[in-house]
Amino acid sequence: MSRVFTPEESIMVQATRDYPNTIVEYKVSVGSEKWKNGNIHRVYKVQMCVDGKARGRQCPSFLADTDDFERVYKALDDLKKKHGDSKIILDS
């Protein structure tokens, strides 16, 4: 499904990873995403980033023995409180 995501606001959350000389982060965002049917939806999105670049097809994983999940959840909660409920934005 082809989608185009335009973030309105993002929070970068440092990931717990052991990759020397590499910055691994979760990019937690709210924004608009155009879906294949042409509708634009307001969405909350979590992406993996390596050295500042989003990995579009890489799903985030949270190490069980870290607080990564809780920190990403807090970032999502903060964005949700600031931006409110999701709603469909129809193409005009």
Overall description:
The chain is an alpha+beta fold. The protein has one helix and five strands, in the order ββββαβ. The chain has one helix spanning 68-83, and strands at 4-14, 24-34, 40-50, 53-55, 88-89. Strands 1, 2, 3, 4 and 5 form a five-stranded antiparallel sheet that branches. β3 and β4 form a beta hairpin. It is globular and about 40 Å long. The two termini are 21 Å apart. The mean pLDDT is 88.
Helical content band: 10-25%
Distance between the termini: 21 Å
- Any idea what the shape is? globular
Radius of gyration: 14 Å
Low-confidence stretches: none
- Structural class comes to alpha+beta
Task: Characterize the biggest β-sheet.
Answer: 5 strands, antiparallel
Summarize the structure.
With 92 residues, the chain is of the alpha+beta class.
What topology emerges from the helices and strands here?
Elements: E1 4-14, E2 24-34, E3 40-50, E4 53-55, H1 68-83, E5 88-89
Antiparallel strand pairs: 1-2, 2-3, 3-4, 3-5
Name its key features.
5 strands, 17% helix
